[in-house]
Amino acid sequence: MARFGIHATKVYGVSLPQLKRLARQVGKDHLLAQELWSSGAHEARLVACFIESPAEVTSRQMDRWAGDFDSWAVCDGCCLHLFAKVPFAQQKAVAWCVRRRELVKRAGFVLMAVLAVHDKTAIDSLFLRWLRLIKNAATDERNFVKKAVNWALRQIGKRNLRLNRAAIRTAKAIQKLDSSSARWVAADALRELMSDAVQKKLRKSPAANAQRTRSLRLKS
To answer: How confident is the model over 192-204, as pLDDT tens digits?
Structure first.
């Protein structure tokens, strides 16, 4: 775990597949999730994220749990498996991405990345606003923040063609900033967003085809 930058305080060494099997056996349990999180143990907190009911999570609970993050693994696991499913996930992404604490700030951008992939109902204007927040944070030199900023930028840019173009413009603007972190964020994102694989996939998407159909109708 130390090799992958997971420096949790209390660890038992139970593998993630084992934890997920245990969580499936337990099922959703709000009270048990609270107890497991309060234990402070790395594995217990991961199980808490798996068994917690998104419908019962409060805004205060999200802030409290985010403040307890002691590794990127718990941060990402919590955002992916729980927080992204909470009704006010979008608001927390915006609130946390400007926080000072490294893992709380990371959580804001991890939420953006996860929502860009899984929230099919979100409109483009939301992600366009987030691109401005991503640019503002790109100069943060802290490893866990800059990697999450990069992740959010790439995932937004792979959502559809319109957002791809906007993300590429944002990455090129970030590239001009006087910051080694910003240059890395931009270069890594541009490499993927401008790749043949991503461009081909986006042009084949139903949304892209619908847009081309509308354009042809307007021209005719």
So the answer is: 999 999 999 999 8
